[in-house]
Amino acid sequence: MSGISAQAVLKKIRVSPRKLNLVAAAIRGKHVSDALEYLQLCPKRISTEVYKTLRSAVANAVNNDGAKVSALYVDEAFVGRSFTLKRFMARGRGRSSAIHKPFSHLSILISERDFEEED
Question: Based on the structure, what is the number of domains in the chain?
Answer without folding.
Answer: 1
